[in-house]
Write a structure and sequence with these properties.
Helix content is about 30%, strand content about 20%. With about 350 residues, the protein is of the alpha/beta class. A hairpin with a 3-residue loop joins strand 5 and strand 6.
């Protein structure tokens, strides 16, 4: 259920509505847009029949949210959400944000070298995995807290925001000490305990689409985070599993405009995992920008042949720099910046 307020509604009237609804067992979330202020209520809506909110001062109209994902939906918030990361980075605004770096954090010097190069090329955030969910238990699993320290130190030295994956609810506080953005990986998209845990923080979250998840599944997972109070969520299309074997995954470009229609949350694209082949990353990135994505997360490594994970899909820094130049032209053509 959402309540649309009149333009002249006072803060006292708004608080009165919130207090009354919460006394009925509903949880209130206020969304202040450019044109309208909306209050979304989560809980048993049949209780509103006892006290119809239409009669309250300041209320323009009351309407049910038809989507199962309520706080995530365009019905709840018509304006695009803009996620602020620190003082400089905004995801969902006119500028398309690029996050880049190695799949895994391997050592301090290697990370620093890559960070300097992606920063010079135009990246706004440094990505790197400290905890790696690998298909095989015998593959490199990441450096853990040591890797987080490297990521934090390099990010500060170079002047980049930082993002890394959190895999376990028990690690949420640890990761929060070191990085600016949580990443929820594809394998954990429906780890509801983890979603609730990051939902109780105020740190931005990149939520990746599961390997076999529908767009509705992705939006419902995002709803778990918003329902706990954290609205700083960025959705991520990173390819889904299909019958096609020519690429690692099938990058669903359709997801970008579909999500834009259904949700106010920004959507970024991971062309590295979406294709699994470095030679396809530039084309997939260009398609994503043309389709309206709000950001890209790209794997970059100085020496992909020696990378401890996902070398086959990692761009060398010089190729990354050339890609950014091309993407700027496409961004301009679709009314965006990069």
């Amino acid at each position: 259920m959402i309540v649309i307020l009149r333009k002249d509604a006072t803060e006292e009237q708004i608080q009165h509505i919130v207090d009354k609804a919460e006394s009925l067992g509903l949880k209130a979330h206020i969304s202040r847009g450019v044109e309208k202020t909306i209050i979304g209520f989560i809980g048993p809506e049949d209780v509103l029949r006892v006290t119809p909110l239409e009669v309250f001062p300041g209320v323009e109209s009351v309407m049910p949210v038809l989507s199962p994902y309520r706080l995530v939906s365009r019905e709840f918030k018509q304006d695009n959400s803009i996620i602020k990361i620190g003082e400089q980075v905004k995801v969902g605004d006119k500028k398309i944000v690029v996050m880049a770096g190695p799949c895994s954090i391997e050592n301090y010097d290697g990370l620093l070298s890559i960070a300097r190069k992606v920063k010079k090329a135009g990246a706004s955030a440094l990505r790197g995995g400290a905890f790696k969910p690998r298909t095989s238990p015998y593959d490199f699993q990441g450096l853990g807290e040591e890797g987080l320290k490297f990521l934090s130190e390099v990010g500060k030295e170079v002047g980049l925001a930082t993002i890394t994956e959190v895999m376990d609810p028990r690690d949420v506080d640890l990761v929060a000490k070191y990085v600016d953005i949580y990443q929820i990986g594809a394998r954990n998209m429906q780890n509801f305990s983890l979603l609730k845990e990051v939902g109780m923080t105020k740190k931005p979250v990149v939520l990746k689409r599961g390997m076999s998840a529908t767009i509705k599944d992705l939006l419902m997972s995002a709803e778990y985070i918003l329902a706990k109070g954290n609205f700083d969520v960025m959705l991520c299309e990173r390819g889904i599993r299909t019958f096609e074997t020519a690429t690692r995954n099938t990058l669903d470009i359709n997801a970008i405009p579909v999500v834009k229609q259904l949700s106010h949350l920004p959507i970024i694209v991971d062309p590295s995992h979406g294709t699994g082949r470095w030679g396809l990353v530039p084309s997939a990135s260009k398609a994503a920008v043309a389709a309206g994505c709000d950001g890209l997360i790209i794997e970059v490594h100085d020496n992909p042949e020696e990378a401890l994970s996902d070398g086959a899909q990692s761009l060398k820094p010089e190729n990354f720099g050339n890609l950014i130049k091309d993407l700027k032209l496409i961004a301009t053509a679709v009314g965006r910046e990069l």
